[in-house]
């Protein structure tokens, strides 16, 4: 791929434009909000102009409800040879694109499963897609050129391509992204009017669980509306489990010893199912997170500490597979969890300790 156009230079558009520019692709940037395109350009993501000749690939990184119309316009104005998008919902888009009169042979749907709870070009990161799945949803008429360009895009962004049918994709993301987003919002909403004394003692668990609730409401309204039936199905299953959990809790606290025993067993079963489901969530490059060992290290809140820790891993010859950081603003220290190959974890923890790092037991 020699040239690309990114339309919509928010979080996702800027991130992929940065990745493409760094790999030597000539990137053009466009956004309905000109200042967003200019900001992306100033970050090194490309040039904030439309191309004078059709580019190899146009990537539409606009909100889901806008993709079909931008696709039809872009094809009419011949911005690119082939087009793809990054929208979070696929079946409704393919239908809307057909209705908008788009040439579907020159289009392939796409969805990188990577993101953040922030919007706009300043949240963009060139490495956002590294090792993440990127779903492609070719239709029956999608050209080989469109598929090849999209595969090259995914590879240039360091992501892993996964080809799926649009319905299969939408049901999968309802389960692993959209319904969890709503539940995160429900949990966080409980805090809105809670007592300050309660919220103040929040720990990492509630922060992890509600991080995505910080996402832009306009984007999520769009996503929920476009995938409503599949999301409602998942929520209905949560509702059954919640009802059972409430009953079990009442039984456990109630006077009937037999019912209390059954309630406790039901709760234990729910927690066991939770462990089993969590263990199935893949880590980096498709390996399950359960297959890595965690080395927790306390670091002080000074610039460069993290870089020093990574350098220590490099000196010890240890590959960091993933990293989780619990950084509490205002606190002097943070906890960094390094995920490494279990066969090197003990040696790594010992060598860090010997080098003066505080490794938690
Ligand atoms: N936020 C996330 O974590 C993820 C989002 N996505 C998808 O990526 C797409 C973009 O989302 P974000 O980058 O998060 O949003 P964003 O709000 O950061 O950026 C969207 C950009 O599109 C521009 N825009 C809106 N309508 C336009 C139009 N008609 N023509 C040109 N530009 C237009 C906006 O001005 C804005 O700069 C959405 O389709 C979303 O479903 C996919 C994966 C993750
Ligand atoms: O913030 C995160 O960790 C996400 O996973 C965000 C996200 C949001 C929307 C998508 O369609 C895909 C990913």
From TrEMBL:
It catalyses: prephenate + NAD(+) = 3-(4-hydroxyphenyl)pyruvate + CO2 + NADH. It comes from the Bacteria. Pfam families: PDH_C, PDH_N. Keywords: Amino-acid biosynthesis, Aromatic amino acid biosynthesis, NAD, Oxidoreductase, Tyrosine biosynthesis. Its EC number is 1.3.1.12. InterPro entries: 6-PGluconate_DH-like_C_sf, ACT-like_dom_sf, ACT_dom, NAD(P)-bd_dom_sf, PDH_C, PDH_N, Preph/Arog_dehydrog, Prephen_DH. Pathway: Amino-acid biosynthesis; L-tyrosine biosynthesis; (4-hydroxyphenyl)pyruvate from prephenate (NAD(+) route): step 1/1. The keyword Oxidoreductase applies. It is an enzyme of class 1 (oxidoreductase). Gene3D superfamilies: 6-phosphogluconate dehydrogenase C-terminal like domain, NAD(P)-binding Rossmann-like Domain. PANTHER family: PREPHENATE DEHYDROGENASE, PREPHENATE DEHYDROGENASE [NADP(+)]. Belongs to the prephenate/arogenate dehydrogenase family. This is Prephenate dehydrogenase. It comes from Catenulispora yoronensis. The lineage of its organism: Bacteria, Bacillati, Actinomycetota, Actinomycetes, Catenulisporales.
